[in-house]
Structure formats: C-alpha cells, structure tokens
Design brief:
The complex is a heterodimer of chains A (266) and B (352). Chain A has 266 residues and is mainly alpha-helical. Chain A has helices at 2-16, 19-46, 55-71, 80-89, 92-97, 102-132, 143-167, 169-172, 176-189, 201-209, 217-223, 230-264. The longest helix of chain A is centred in the C-terminal third of the chain and has 35 residues, at 230-264. Chain B folds into 2 domains: 13-117 and 194-266, P-loop containing nucleotide triphosphate hydrolases (Rossmann fold), CATH 3.40.50; 270-350, Alpha-Beta Plaits (2-Layer Sandwich), CATH 3.30.70. Chain B is built from 12 helices and 14 strands. Chain B has helices at 13-19, 21-24, 82-90, 111-115, 134-144, 149-162, 178-190, 208-225, 236-242, 260-266, 317-327, 340-350; strands spanning 31-45, 51-66, 71-75, 97-102, 118-122, 196-200, 228-232, 245-250, 253-258, 270-277, 285-287, 295-303, 306-312, 330-336. In chain B, helix 5 (134-144) packs parallel to helix 7. The chains are: A mainly alpha (266), B alpha/beta (352). Chains A and B meet through helix 1, helix 5 and helix 12 of A and helix 3, helix 4, strand 5 and helix 5 of B.
Amino acid sequence: MRLYAVVAGGAFRRYATYRTATAAGVFTNTVFGFIVAYTYVALWDARPQLGGYDTSQALTYVWLGQALLMACAMMGGGFEDELAERIRTGDIAIDLYRPVDLQLWWLAGDLGRAAFHLLGRGVVPMFLGALAFDLALPGSLWTWPAFFVSVFLGVVVSFAMRYLVAMSAFWLMDGAGAMRIVSLAGLFFSGMLLPLNLFPGLLGEVARALPWSSLLQVPADVFLGKHTGWGLVEAYAFQGGWAVVLLLAGRLLQTAATRRVVVQGG
Amino acid sequence: MGDGTGTGTGTGVGTATDMSPATGAGGDGFITLDGVEKVFQVRRRTGLLRRERREVRAVDGISFRVARGEMVGYIGPNGAGKSTTIKMLTGILTPSGGRLRVAGIDPSRERTRLAHRIGVVFGQRTTLWWDLPLRDSYRLMHRMYRIPDRRYRENLDRCVELLDLAELLEVPVRQLSLGQRMRGDIAAALLHDPEVLYLDEPTIGLDVISKAKVRQFLKELNTERGTTVLLTTHDLTDIEQLCNRVMVIDHGRLMYDGSLEGLHEVGESERMLVVDLESELPPIVLESEGAGGGPALRAVKVEGPRQWLAFPAAASAAPLVARIAADYPLVDLSVREPDIEAVIARMYESAP
C-alpha cells in the first residue's frame, strides 16, 4: 500500500511542478465559469425551477462543474495519453518488469493527479464564483465530507473509463481516435454542458444511468443536498457499482493485453 | 545445433563452454537455457481479404548456461534475437519451446517473484520518473521492491558515491544529460540488490567519459557483489573491458560462445594499423617471421602517404610496428580495433 501512496504522492507533485500551467488553467476555468454562469442566469430567468434547481443552485452547479472539470477529467486528460503512448512505443515493457499491478499503479497516479487538480484547479474558481454570485453552499457541515466521497468515487469511475480506452491502444496502436470520442461523450454525458436533470424522456433516463453522470451530476446533487439519507447511499451505490464494473472490465482487458504482449511480442 | 556453429577451428559452442572455467562448475547454471525457441506469428495481407500467416523464428533453439557471478556479453547484429532472449529471461515473453530457468525460476510463470531478484537497464528507455527529481524515483523503488530501510540507504549511498550522483539527486530527470540519466537508471536497477543484472546497450549514445564511468562501476559491482551480468551491446570495447565470455547470436541461433580472443580467431578478424609515412611509397607488405608463410601484415588501402595495414587481431602490434619503423620513414600511426559486425560477417563467410 505504501508503494501506491508514493505513486500518488509523486503524481501530485509532478502536476504541482507546472505552476504556470496551473495558473493558466485556473484563469481558463474562471473565465468559462463566468460565461456559462451568465448563460444559466438567462436560462433560469426564462424558465425558473428548470430541472428542479433554483437559480442559485444552477449557478452552484456551474461552478462545481468548473471546479471538478480537471479533477474528474471529464473531457479526458491525465494519465491515459501517457499510458497509450507507452503502449505505442513499447515502453510498457518496462512497466511489466516491475513487481507492481499495472492498473493499481495507474489508479494511484491518477488519484494523486486528481487530488492536485481539486486543490489547484478547483478551489480558486469555486471561491471566485462564490464571491461573484449567490451560490447555494451546503447548509449542513456533513454535506462536505459526503460530497468529497462522491467526488472520490467519480474520479475512480473516470479513471476506470479512461483506463479502458488506453488499453484499447494495445489493439488499435493509436488510441487518439477513441480518446476523442470518449472526451466528447464525457463533455455531454457528465452534465458539463447542462445538468442531466433537464433532459426529458428516454435521453434523460439513459444519460443519467450512464457512468459519466458519476463525474459531475451525482457529486453536484450531493453538494446541493438532493441526495440525503438512503438517497445518498443509493447515489454512492450507483457510482461504486459503475466503478467496480468498469475496473473489472479494465482488468479483463489488461489480462488479455498482457497475454497478447507476452505471447506475441511488442 | 545449426551449421553456423561448427566453424572448422573447433571453437564452436560445445567446446567453448568447456573452455570457460566458470561455466563448467556444477550441472545447472544460474541462468539455464535448453533449446529455447520463440516463434512469432506474423499475418500479412496478400490480397483484398486474404491474409497469409507466416512464422518468424526470432530465437531458434538456443542453449547456454551462465554461472553465478559471470559477466557475459551477448552480441549480434540488429534483429538477431538479443532483445527477444532478454525479454524471455525476464518473463515478459513466453518461449514457444525449450526450457528456461533463472535462479531456478521459470520467468514467464513467476514474473513478479523473479522481478525482485533481477535488475534491468535499457540504454534507450528509462524507468525513472520524468518530471520529478531523481530521488523520488529511488523512493519509489524503495517501496516497489519492499527494500528494508537500512539496506536501501546503504545501497543508495553506495550507488550515489560510485556513480557520482550526489549533485543530481534533486534534479528532475528531464533535465539530466543522457550519461547522467543512464547512471541514474543503473542505480535504480540496483537498489534492491538483484542477483542478476540485464543491460541492454548500457553505453549507447554516451561520451567517452560517461562510458568509462559506467564500465568501471559495472566491473566493481561484479567483483565486489558477485552480481551476474548479461549485457548486449554494439560496442566491442564494452565487451573487451568487462566480459570474459561472449556469446554471439544471429538469426536466432548461437553462433559462438567463448572468450573474446577466441571470437577474433574464429572470425579471423583483423586489426588495422594506420600509418602515415614521410612520402608516398608502394604498399607495405611484411612477411611473417616464422615458418608459417603468408604475410604478417598487408596493405589494404593506400592514400598518398597514408596506408591502412591489416594484421590478425590475435597478433601483437608491437613487433610489427618495430619492423615498420625500422624499414620505413614512419611519421605517425594508430591502431584500429575490428568492429563486431565485421567479425560476425567474416564468421559467416568462413562457416561451411
């Protein structure tokens, strides 16, 4: 376990070394936050209580989205480009020499990255947003830890999906196409464009049931106090369920890929 | 074994193994290969939908033993099967046939268990954390191999001292030069006290000073710790300075296994004496002094006052130089060592 703690710590510091990039990212998140916030203000002015949110809750949703965009890697980003590149160049062979579990190794690294992005890219935009707008911050102190548990589960689900995509590089050799598709899907189905609650009918049902909703929709609803008591347990079960299923699928694909490498060479 | 091994001089695989004293000891070596094969299936499109399956024998029945504490050079041209062999030895490729054991372990079955006992260094790839200081990568190794704290500190201190890493520990790996990075990589592979170290082109791209440092360190590692070392290289000097034993592989077969001098004999390799004379002279030829017959040295190229003179690699250059200096107006000279590709090429020609 200590190994994976070192990996996570290393990943955290690795992202922390690029301070200018972080500052630029914070700036981008803030600017986009303002643009989307004013769009939502207009929308909720025309249709109050849209999706069950009042204007203040909708604005909170916007800033949560900006704060979690990088942490939950909704549009991709983080380790998968690197892993796919290692597979393409054959550097993955080095990883196989090591007495470590490939999936846990990368998961630990991604958790370290997410922790940094939550602090480095999340706190400041959220704070600025709270200064400029009247946000619906949690009334109960217990909502905060509940929210962070949900974010953690969201990161794991996000990791598991991106791990699957990166593993596909073993067969596709170039994972860029698959990554593009997943990043677009992530943008929409995480609820980054509009809360998934707004979508009526089948599309809404499907969007809310897909794993991407664990990335933003579920944590945001926990933050806004929409899931409490058994509802909270249900929300966790939804995220945890997807995490387990996707991690297992990744493991299956990893086993197949390793066997392929071991038998067929690079 | 293939026809390439019986080279007429009797220094083929079988006898060569007996020649090196370390390998003869004990029935089973530390690293043991018996008729190991690796066959890849390659599919190639031949028509619109038709695909042709072809077999590529990357390793075609290799057998050898390496005793504990030996330092062996594993050489051959590109695509000869060197890397495939190393991959099988570390367990990331399963052999298609034959038996393979490292420290009594079947690598492909127990890769993780074996990983604690081996170290691997690639000249062209790094295991270090790119964006972080060197020290962080070592901390990672500490946990990855579950090295006891005291041993970790001792080993790190030793590597830092011998490989001159003290000033580099806090530098991010991406800022290191190739030579510095290589030394960093070697240290990373040794912190868990591996019993055997595989080095794939450890001196590739390094300058003379860095090469010397790496070689010196490997030599000390081998004599002091008794670490078994298997290295692949294109640099014959690596072999000359480090290895008592050299194995040559080509087309997936072991062509030669024995001492480096023996290889020169088998390959009938020649060294080159480049001499600058005072003026343009006809090509120099020296007859051998004994009753052997045939020239001891012959000119292969003449360019103005400069002549390229070939002589057998096993012969000493000193008496030849003395004779030339006595008979010709010699201004300057240098000796060039044969390169391994030429030696192997000649081994082929001389094979029946």
